[in-house]
Amino acid sequence: MKRETKFAALLGASLPAVAMLTLPNTAYAQNAEPDAGETREATGQQGEFLGTIDIGESTRAVQTNTATPATAIDREEIEDREASTIAELVDSVPGVTLVNGSTPIGSGINIRGFGANGTYGTDQKVAVQIDGASVGSEELYRIGTQLFTDPLLYKSVEVIRGTVGSFEYGSGIIGGIVRLETSDASDLTGGRPGFALNQVAGYNSNGDGWNSSTTVAAMPNEHVEFLANYSWREQNNLQDGNGDEIPNSEFGLPSWLIKGGVHFGADNAHTIEASFSQTETSERDKPYDSFGTSGGSFGNVDRDTKSQVATLGYTFDPIADDAVNLSLLYSYANQEIVQEYVPGSSPYAPPGGFDVVNADQQYETHKVTLKNIAYFDTGSLRHNLRIGLEYVHKDRLDANSAPGGTDKRMAAFLVDEIALFPGFTLTPAMRWESQTVKGTLDSGADASYENEALMGGVSARYELPVGFAVFGSWAYTENLPILDDLENDVYMSQSEQAETWEAGASFDHIGLLGRSDRAAFKVNYYDTDLTDVTSYSGVSAVRLEGFEIEGSYAAGNGLYLDFNINLPKGEQTDTGGAVSDWDNTPPDSYAVSVGKRFGDLLNLRWESYFAADADRNGTVTEGFDSHNLRLIVTPSGGLLDGLALRLSVENLFDSYYTPLLSTRPAPGRNFKFSISKLF
Prior knowledge:
Radius of gyration: 25 Å
Structural class: mainly beta
Distance between the termini: 63 Å
Strand content: over 45%
């Protein structure tokens, strides 16, 4: 059966099944309550105005208004968590597991059992985007650089788990996607003409590290805005909970960002915006194997890594026309890794080192995306239609273990959120993608392959007026062949195929125990089958299923509670038909934080993380618990406005543990202090 036919058949079969089941960002939520931390108007039985109520605020809002398993991290949380890497920033998201998250090199992200592992920094099933640009490599042998950037460059990070919310962003996204958005000048000036300066400086005791981030924002008038940022972060080698040094965990990481926009036309409906960011680091006499799983057999290298992202976009969003919100975005992402073997550093390598160790890597991705968002009615149906075209051109430098060549793709996508009747939304989604891969084989012969796939899904959500909702979805995607497999004729004509079913429920209510409290809860079950596997040696199929649970409660007196639970289970089928545990399955984990806000001045929070023992094919990884304590002080009045002081103690009890999927111990106790001021 052709893949297009299979997709059509599965879609047709799924429609009845999801008739009570929606996709991301439902536009017509029935329970239109304010966000946590805001105020709402209170009315009596006759509708008379009684005043305003301050709603309790937790750390992070649970995304109860969508069927998509998504988590959003805003700028306040980015600064409050004092994370050294993007990986450390997203480690509290259910379903997300880190592979060595405390350094930018040798770390990666695993979502629902896919993504980084101890051999490669990624397996293409977890995507990373910065301002819409697709960043990172496909497969880098024993080098992890998937999240190679500084957290303080960004105003928000969104993690979308699974396939159901991915069709606007790419194909083959099975684990999920991490979407980062850089700051705008208007974010610092409050959207008003003026000038703003934001300075962040911090220190961490473990590794004797420090960081600084300086952002200058200017809006001369309502038509022009400009922002520039320079960030520097460095640390020495960390120590684990036993007081032993964690080798090769030192780094220096300079980053910078420039971004500007021009708004013009009636009501500033037209916008042209451009940005450029760069992060780089240099390593000297460090192991080639940044994951540290080969016992040093490859030897050491001098390595320079650079990551660049550039965007140029145009949007047209007229206030008077809901059917037009047009955007055209060009993005460019470049990753360069230049490395040279250190003579004599390996007893196993020839005098000049292994070829793979001396190989320079470069990945360049050009992408053009044309998209329109339209709100309109057809009879009694209300639509939020997102439709677009995309062109992607990837260039890769030829290197040992990483064949060079080009991967050109054309894609079209459509997501239509249809409000059929009050409380019920049905959302079909599709993505068509074609591919032409060209390169030169080791024999010197030219190779060319063409593939295409039709992907998509359907989801639904029904919400009752009391804030309770049920939802579910089905999604099918294909991971098209990659340049890494250029020498394998079979793999270059075979897409990996994944089918995911999800179902769940959510509850979001203000005034549960008191008129100013807020409770939110969301539980999601997923079941993913990956077949025609080419990414993992000796594996023909992988199945992952699990529960992801998120919840929060915030009282009007400042007390709050946040928690999440991740309960995954995975198995693999090898090429001989034998079934065993999927080695990349994360452990069962539980995270909870309890805090108290003392007005707008103090926020004191205790965070705990528990990982259960994990048995993967007879290899048992011991579980652990880790605890953090955070204090955020935000005084106000006069010169104190815009000032924030943050003090954290991570791994409070100095526990020694190595998380499952990681290849080195976690850092021991770490005191962190930072100060920020918006002028």
